[in-house]
From TrEMBL:
<protein>
    <submittedName>
        <fullName>Uncharacterized protein</fullName>
    </submittedName>
</protein>
<feature type="region of interest" description="Disordered">
    <location>
        <begin position="50"/>
        <end position="71"/>
    </location>
</feature>
Amino acid sequence: MRREDIAQVTEIDREAFPTLWPPVNYERELENRLAHYIVACDEEERVEESEVEASLEKDPPGASIQGKAFI
């Protein structure tokens, strides 16, 4: 996982779990030499970050993002 993945990972986290892990926690974990995070995506269903940001702005909290893959 890279720092630029955090916004998309946070959105997936919001969709998947009842409690949100704040983005700052992911930033800290990226500095943790003992932790390793892998981001997987489907290139055929790839959604660019600008599309994710636009979706976050218009969708209410908890809105579905199913069927989209994030990088």
